[in-house]
């Protein structure tokens, strides 16, 4: 997909990867970019920074009626949605002991929000015979987010759902991409490090933390090539192959890293 003259919607658009995508889409010549976020004030700030091409909306992605209303309003305002970026996500830093409320929130934001977006945008896209869905799934959806069981489980589900969408709708003209970055310098990573979350420390130890703008660059390239997997960290492809070929060895390597990081904290 070439972003010139396209209409794009970005959830979780008020910061991190989302706001970087919004700025880059406008720079690429998008006709309109809708910045949607639970933090409506932050979304409006991003839209104001970008300029008249951007439009801000407050949105709870776990509320299907709100998602449907966003899509309907965008289609009324601009005539169509060419690209829907289901980008909102949450981490927990918890394991099996994480309360049910954390598991439920991760499921609703990291998985059901993608479902709600697809339900809302697919009818018009299918009628038109074109459209692109971009789901931010994380490298955790291909590998493991050490120290965060809800994030790992739900991101794997998100990749699985994106794969199903791609297989089901590609021949109808719909393109689907799963954006799977590893470490990105976002508030999510900063909060994890501040709280001592093991997964955030593993990412920091890897030394491969990208800026949101670098992720946006990789996303633009992936959309242009209509790739299913967009991997801002190319090494993730090698990790995924290693994990598939030798899961026991892959897990042993992760356990070794975890032991080292835990020893450093003692």
TrEMBL record:
Entries under InterPro entries matching the protein: KR_dom, NAD(P)-bd_dom_sf, Sc_DH/Rdtase_CS, SDR_fam
Oxidoreductase among keywords: yes
SUPFAM superfamilies xrefs: NAD(P)-binding Rossmann-fold domains (SSF51735)
Domain Ketoreductase: 6-182
PROSITE patterns: ADH_SHORT
Keywords: Oxidoreductase
Superkingdom to which the source organism belongs: Bacteria
Transmembrane feature ranges: none
Family: Belongs to the short-chain dehydrogenases/reductases (SDR) family.
Protein name, UniProt field: SDR family oxidoreductase
Organism: Micromonospora coerulea
Organism taxonomic ancestry: Bacteria, Bacillati, Actinomycetota, Actinomycetes, Micromonosporales
């Amino acid at each position: 997909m070439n972003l010139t003259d396209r209409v794009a919607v970005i959830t979780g658009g008020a910061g991190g990867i989302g706001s970087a995508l919004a700025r880059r889409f406008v720079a690429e010549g998008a006709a309109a970019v809708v910045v949607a976020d639970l933090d409506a004030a932050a979304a409006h700030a991003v839209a104001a920074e970008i300029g008249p091409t951007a439009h801000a909306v407050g949105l709870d992605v776990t509320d299907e009626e709100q998602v449907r209303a966003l899509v309907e309003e965008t289609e009324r305002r601009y005539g169509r949605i060419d690209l829907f970026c289901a980008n909102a996500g949450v981490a927990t830093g918890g394991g099996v002991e994480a309360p049910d409320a954390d598991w439920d929130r991760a499921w609703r934001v990291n998985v059901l929000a993608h479902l709600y977006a697809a339900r809302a945008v697919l009818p018009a896209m299918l009628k038109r015979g074109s459209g692109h869905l971009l789901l931010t799934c994380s490298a955790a959806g291909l590998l493991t987010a050490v120290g965060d069981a809800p994030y790992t489980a739900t991101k794997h589900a998100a990749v699985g759902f994106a794969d199903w969408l791609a297989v089901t709708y590609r021949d109808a003209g719909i393109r689907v991409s799963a954006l799977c970055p590893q470490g990105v310098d976002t508030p999510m990573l900063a909060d994890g490090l501040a709280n001592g979350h093991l997964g955030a420390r593993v990412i920091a130890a890897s030394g491969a933390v990208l800026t949101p703008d670098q992720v946006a660059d990789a996303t633009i390239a992936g959309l242009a090539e209509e790739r299913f997997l967009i991997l801002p960290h190319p090494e993730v492809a090698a990790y995924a192959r290693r994990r598939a070929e030798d899961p026991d060895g892959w897990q042993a390597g992760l356990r070794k890293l975890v032991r080292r990081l835990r020893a450093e904290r003692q």
